[in-house]
């Protein structure tokens, strides 16, 4: 491909020696490119690797030497940090909380969003465009703008601090983006399929459940991963609506430990590794869906 | 145990209830005359979503705007007092300045590096591996990323062993260690860098996807005409990528303005690192002042409105092309 750069059309046929020379200069010219990529890759990878390595070291080692020294023997790997973090108050139960928050929140919002997306894609009604434009606008409204009134609603209804509150809040915040994305996807399905089903006497619920939903599975799958990780990684929503409630998730507990422990927070390396294990596993095993979700959702705010 | 049961019930019950809502609702709708049916049906389908968006986004946004003109516990109208406070108090002004830093430097570097890396890896055989390395921080939560970088930035007094990667690296070239997160000349840059590290992969993936759609014939033609690689990138690739760059750019600007997690976990806004979003949370929890907190939220929202307009316009253009 790039050999073309130096080859001119009007050139006479070069000898073997000059070809070899040219190749050599080319690869030397490309050396900075490779070097730059390698430097970027190392800088972007090293911090995460450093954390993972540190999480398997003793507290004493962490205080006495950098993580890179462990790469050479004696390694001195230990699970002490993991033991300590799992025995720290609230940590184990907050991991369970994270699961209990994330799964229902994801299911609720995607179910509601798919239904609405079908209506916006295949039904025409007065106000459709206006409502949909509002939804597009809502995608970028900062959560901060909603915290106080929503908190008051939760306090007034007795939901503050409960797990239901965060399910509902996450669903509300996630919906605009999901409706937007799914409506574009469902709307791009072939019209003929829906029309012929209608001719065959299939009602909207049949067309939705038997046609639209099965054909939207790829989009829903990407979105599920995206939403799931968004809720799993969330801090602000849970911090605001759950605060110190026993229902608070892992991210909130880690944050509280970081800010409350002056020194001796080294064992939190293990907590961070546990927290990011799920997202990283999802990324590694479901990479295609993950990346597709991101590129499709590039308008997200 | 109770919570596990509640969650289990929710996971099963919500789709079942929705399904029941759909099927029963459709049964009822089908009894209505045709005209009424087509009138009611769309609202019936979109109602749950509209209700959620209304309760959790539209109503609170309007309500917050109103509350920003009221006092601490929203009992008395105070006019512009909360905004006056925001734009005169040094602490809040500082967070405004820092958010501006975030907006400029985070956006330029995350998008810029994303673009440069996408173009660079496009030219080598090990593209996918290089991209995985750059993308790896994206799925990591801001909380975990903050802990990762707390270790990177770790500081020990000069003379003792530097266990933080950055200061150890400085030590090998004979420099004094820097207290990255405390030192006021470095801490904002350090925090912004953590976010750049997190989001560059995100920008790269999107830009890379659109890079692949540029026809290789154009590039070949330019190369045959003897254009250098740098000229090709500057005069052909970048202009063709521009629509994607603006989309990614607006997303990053919004991310920068809304930035909360990294600052909250790493410094809590101390040592002159506060940003608007953290400021708002502190006014709400530490200060307990709903009026001021609401005003900070409104400032943040007003800053985002131009981007909201851009997004809506772009959507309308896309609709016209459908």
Structure, described:
The complex is a heterodimer of chains A (301) and B (322). With 301 residues, chain A is mostly helical. Chain A has helices spanning 16-55, 59-64, 80-87, 91-122, 128-138, 147-157, 163-187, 191-199, 204-233, 236-242, 250-260, 268-285, 287-296. Chain A folds into two domains: 2-78, no CATH class; 84-296, MetI-like (MetI-like fold), CATH 1.10.3720. Chain A is built from 13 helices and no strands. The longest helix of chain A is centred in the N-terminal third of the chain and has 40 residues, at 16-55. Chain A is flat, with a radius of gyration of 27 Å. Chain B is mainly α and 322 residues long. Chain B folds into two domains: 2-49, no CATH class; 81-321, MetI-like (MetI-like fold, Orthogonal Bundle), CATH 1.10.3720. Helices cover 76% and strands 0% of the residues of chain B. Chain B has 13 helices and no strands. In chain B, helix 2 (34-67) packs antiparallel against helix 13 (290-321) and helix 10 packs across helix 13. The radius of gyration of chain B is 25 Å and the shape is globular. The two termini of chain B are 50 Å apart. Chains A and B meet through helix 1, helix 2, helix 4, helix 5 and helix 6 of A and helix 1, helix 2, helix 4, helix 5 and helix 6 of B.
Structure at a glance:
The complex is a heterodimer of chains A (301) and B (322). With 301 residues, chain A is mainly α. Chain A is 72% helix and 0% strand.
Describe the secondary structure blueprint for this structure.
The complex is a heterodimer of chains A (301) and B (322).
Chain A: H1 16-55, H2 59-64, H3 80-87, H4 91-122, H5 128-138, H6 147-157, H7 163-187, H8 191-199, H9 204-233, H10 236-242, H11 250-260, H12 268-285, H13 287-296
Helix pairs in contact in A: 1-12, 3-12, 4-7, 4-9, 4-11, 5-7, 7-9, 7-10, 9-12, 9-13, 11-12, 12-13
Chain B: H1 2-31, H2 34-67, H3 81-88, H4 90-121, H5 127-135, H6 142-152, H7 165-172, H8 187-211, H9 216-224, H10 229-258, H11 261-266, H12 276-285, H13 290-321
Helix pairs in contact in B: 1-2, 2-13, 3-13, 4-8, 4-10, 5-8, 8-10, 9-10, 10-13, 12-13
